[in-house]
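Quick log. Single chain, no ligands specified.
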Amino acid sequence: MLAVVVLVIGSVVGFAGFLGVTVDRNVQRANLLPPPEQDPVTAPDGSTIPTSGTGTNFLVIGTDGRTPTDRGRSDVIIIVHIPKDPTTIQMIHFPRDLYVPIPGYGKNKINAAYAYGGEPLLVRTLQDMLGIRIDHVARTDFAGFEGMTDAVGGVRVYAEEGNDATGNGGVAIRKGWNELDGAQALGFVRERYQLSEGDISRGRRQLAFIKALLLKATSSETVTNPIKVAKFTNAATKNLVVDQDLTIGEMKDYALELKGIRGNDVVFATAPFSGFAMDPVAGSIDVVDEKGMALLGEALRKDRMDDYLDVFQTP
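-> predicted structure:
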């Protein structure tokens, strides 16, 4: 969601001063990163993890909380990778049922890291698993999803599978294209019980929604309409919490750097998994593809995500 805000502000540079005031007023900051001594120094192969020059990694978390102070549960976990010389942005979705090692807690579903220790422990879990450094963290909630969707006048999303209104999303979705307002979009991204692969299928829906929102938010219909841009920026940032190190100045720098990026330049992938299983404690889990995860970590460290996505890109 932070990437969406940055792209929209970058698209309307002449309006950026006013938008910057809105962002500065709305965005809240918290200690979302682990302390420096817990940052990774070496990758799994023993090589040193560079601190700069290989792109920037954002961890973006979508929760079921209803206010910025309500941490809620982590329903959406995405690493946004901005390359050193960005012509594209990569978003990697981590299904919440991925069965992974959590520092100090053994193995469990990845969203348990958030439940045990909030953003800092989730950051450590991802950093240790991938051998990377996560530079910044942003968290939004259900109200942010709804508000951004309504601010751009709704979105048009393609659904690989349909579902009726009795599922956990509470909204009927037909297979194919759907025109969704904010409340309907929230139901679309929450549903999993009626989908063929449960949490994995829901993850694909979440990525489809983000792509649809990116396309609508960066369209000429939106960026040439100052009222829509102002409403969108306000809706996106009033429920946004970021780490203490991410300054407004940095946000503006990213906006300028990415001003040429549009929705079709954002590439999506799902973190590699090899299948499904049951754990006596965690229940139904997604089994990590260890080889694929190692390749993902290497691609992020070396800023070579294009090579990785040739194999693992999500359609």
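Residues 2-312 form a domain with the Aminopeptidase fold (CATH 3.40.630.190).
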